[in-house]
Design goal:
Elements lengths: L1 H12 L4 E5 L11 E6 L4 E5 L4 E4 L8 E3 L15 E4 L5 E4 L4 E8 L4 E4 L6 E10 L4 E12 L7 E7 L24 E4 L3 E4 L8 E2 L12 E10 L4 E8 L18 E14 L2
Parallel strand pairs: 4-5, 14-15
Antiparallel strand pairs: 1-2, 2-3, 3-4, 6-7, 8-18, 9-18, 10-17, 11-16, 11-18, 12-17, 13-14
């Protein structure tokens, strides 16, 4: 009898660290509403039945799963710098985030002068980057160009493929892209004249005849594009005049032969992750 009494005393003395409550109020039991497991330190695991919501460390159920605190998911694919990524079926695993694989940059090694109204291509010195097959690249080009005398547009082309192929060939992955300084809102004229909505400016900066500016460095010519390669090859920048009527060239140059100098250019090829 004495042993049984001591046993009951021990049960009465033992501390209680957690309690299970059924009900919408932690102190009132209302069956079939929710289930709450609460420890003496205030941490909670709450399961809301009617909408199927779960709260861990919080009783605020404003989402299907609301976690207040750290989260640890270990499935064998975890690693430093990885992000949790879902597949088409919603199954998530740790993966390395997409990023650029490599960046190649080359700069123009010397100024080059093109003569407008000719149909030949000339490669810009130093502007060549080898590209690998079955890759996606972001291409960025920027350079300065300036007229020595006269006026005229300059067309620039990307060429990718076999170096021995002619620049008029579009086969084997050759890709052309161009920008043209047209006779639009702004136009550079000989030798350092700029016109705003004025085709033949006669002063340094012609708008309404009262604004002046002297662009000593020339004008920027640039483009940004993407290319998907099928074979190994060299990406090159070539220049010609707008007299060459390829698919991307919708411009007719009516002027005489004029020299255009291109300088301080750079070409970037950024390989993108699959």
């Amino acid at each position: 009898m004495k042993n049984i009494f001591y046993f009951l005393l021990l049960l009465t003395y033992a501390p209680s660290y957690a309690q299970v409550k059924i009900g919408s109020n932690p102190t009132i039991f209302t069956p079939n509403t929710n289930l709450e497991v609460e420890a003496t330190n205030g941490s909670k695991v709450v399961i809301e039945q009617s909408e199927g919501k779960v709260g861990i460390g919080t009783s605020s159920l404003d989402a299907k799963l609301n976690v207040a605190g750290d989260i640890k998911i270990v499935d064998g694919t975890q690693g430093t710098g990885k992000v949790l990524t879902s597949d088409a079926n919603g199954i998530a695993s740790w993966r390395t985030p997409p990023a650029c694989v490599s960046v190649n940059l080359v700069t123009q090694t010397a100024p080059i002068t093109y003569t407008t109204n000719y149909t030949n291509f000339i490669q810009i010195p130093g502007m060549s980057i080898p590209l690998l097959a079955n890759k996606t690249y972001k291409i960025i080009y920027m350079g300065l160009r300036k007229f020595s005398t006269g006026n005229g547009p300059l067309a620039l082309y990307l060429k990718y493929g076999n170096d021995t192929a002619t620049e008029t060939t579009f086969l084997n992955g050759n890709f052309y892209f161009q920008t043209i300084q047209d006779y639009g809102p702004m136009q550079q004229f000989s030798p350092h004249y700029m016109g705003v909505n004025k085709e033949f400016p006669s002063v340094e900066m012609a708008s309404d005849g009262t604004s002046y500016i002297q662009p000593q460095l020339g004008l920027y010519q640039s483009f940004i594009g993407y290319i998907q390669t099928k074979t190994d090859g060299n990406l090159r920048i070539l220049g010609t005049n707008s007299k060459v009527n390829y698919i991307l060239n919708i411009h007719t140059y009516y002027g005489a032969e004029r020299p255009i100098t291109l300088f301080n250019g750079y070409l970037v090829a950024i390989e993108l992750a699959d």
